[in-house]
Fold this sequence. Notes:
Layout: E1 8-11, H1 13-17, H2 26-37, E2 41-45, H3 54-59, E3 64-67, E4 72-75, E5 78-81, H4 86-97, E6 103-108, E7 111-114, E8 124-125, E9 138-144, E10 161-166, E11 170-175, H5 180-190, E12 198-202, H6 208-213, E13 216-219, H7 225-228, E14 233-234, H8 242-252
Parallel strand pairs: 1-2, 1-12, 2-3, 7-8, 12-13, 13-14
Antiparallel strand pairs: 3-4, 4-5, 6-7, 6-9, 9-11, 10-11
Amino acid sequence: MGLFPYRAVIVDFDRTLLRTDKSISDHTIRVLRECCQSGARLFAATARPERAIQAYCDTIAFDAVTTLNGARTIVGDDVYEALISNRSAEYVLQQLNAMEGAVISVETGSGLYASIDIPVWQPTVTDDICSLAGQEKIYKILVSHPQIPISRICLDLPEDLYTTVADQKLIQIMSKEATKWNGILRMLESFQIQTEQAIYFGDDNDDTEPIMKCGCGVAVGNALPSVLGIADYITESNDEDGVAAFLSGLIKG
């Protein structure tokens, strides 16, 4: 076994580390553990909330995670938050609520709320979604529409917020402080690891900045064309255990 060249391995979850069926292969788990045995720290950077990654964290001993696109970063007992302000949340939710047919969901300090039932997410359904502003910590607002393409969903966005698109069909709205990159910087700083000592794996729009700014940025083969175009390396797809394939080559030296 050669000397592992990075002090931190950082992975996105959906469509990167996870296969399409949301599983992680035994081979991938074994390779990640070998990275840890080689002295590397293992971090996760995901759009998911903590409740939706717990099973994976029980299997893989991540040293730290940044969740909700960087709105919450957990390093040991320390939690760092980047919330949407009450005023901005109310302003955005009022716009979305006036959009007939829009499917609105809100990640809050007490869980996920939505304007209609979304079975795969199991939200608390509310017919007064605007009232969440001022009543809850708000980490992220999400919107999609069954008939209108996301490119035609127009918002007057406050200056302290930004949007990104997930899976080419879901608009995510967060504080400008809530980015995967900011969460990654928190994790790296906590372990005194330089950005050039980190390798990052991703596939989607919010993985672009980490891929460009870490010491090595790797796109899985199923990544968006824009992500493939800026990656240092391209590995196999998520369904072909691309993360494990690339890391195995580094471990073997």
